[in-house]
Amino acid sequence: MADPEKKKKKPSFAARMVARGREAKHLGKTLKDEPRSFPAAVLDLMRRSFRIVWRARGGGLYACGFVVTFFYLEIQMFFGDIFAAESFGSFFAEQASEILFRYIGESIRNTISAFMWPVYIIEIKPPWGIGLLVGMYLVFANFVKQPLEKWLFDGESPGTGPTK
């Protein structure tokens, strides 16, 4: 049995939010000072974030489906807000005034929906949805998982190591 004192303690919510703030500040500085390296910095941040979700959700099809579903819902929400705004300026004014309540609330709803992604697949056509889910698992396990882990962890073991 593992020694409980050796188990890593999860950082507090406040510490995680401070880290997110530093990441956002670093991305803003990169965009300002080195705009050509900004896409690579965003990709690296997304890779690290996906790595955290990958480990937390077990590193399989469920983790992948969660991330894909969450990003789909967030992008859908973002573009829905853009198209609902009267003008580009009003979009930013609305986002600035509503970000704390509406955006966070919708993101929480999107997170809950992303947790339930297999249900949406099964609901497509009840007997065929289960077959589709099984097929997705077979394709993922045989063709997608290994290259994805190689990209995510780049030589590091998927179950251990720093999340950077």
Mean pLDDT: 82
Our Rg estimate from Cα atoms comes to: 19 Å
Helix percentage range: over 70%
Main beta-sheet annotation: none
Low-pLDDT stretches are: none
Query: What distance separates the N and C termini?
Result: 27 Å
The tally of domains stands at 1
Give the strand content: under 5%
Count of individual helical segments: 6
Structural notes for this entry:
There is one protein chain. The chain has six helices and no strands. The chain has 164 residues and is an all-alpha fold. Helix 1 (13-33) packs antiparallel against helix 2 and helix 3 runs antiparallel to helix 4 (88-115). It starts with 12 loop residues before the first helix and ends in an 11-residue tail after the last helix. The mean pLDDT is 82.
Question: What labels describe this entry?
Answer:
164 residues
Which helices and strands appear, and what pairs or packs with what?
Blueprint: H1 13-33, H2 38-56, H3 61-84, H4 88-115, H5 117-122, H6 126-153
Helix pairs in contact: 1-2, 3-4
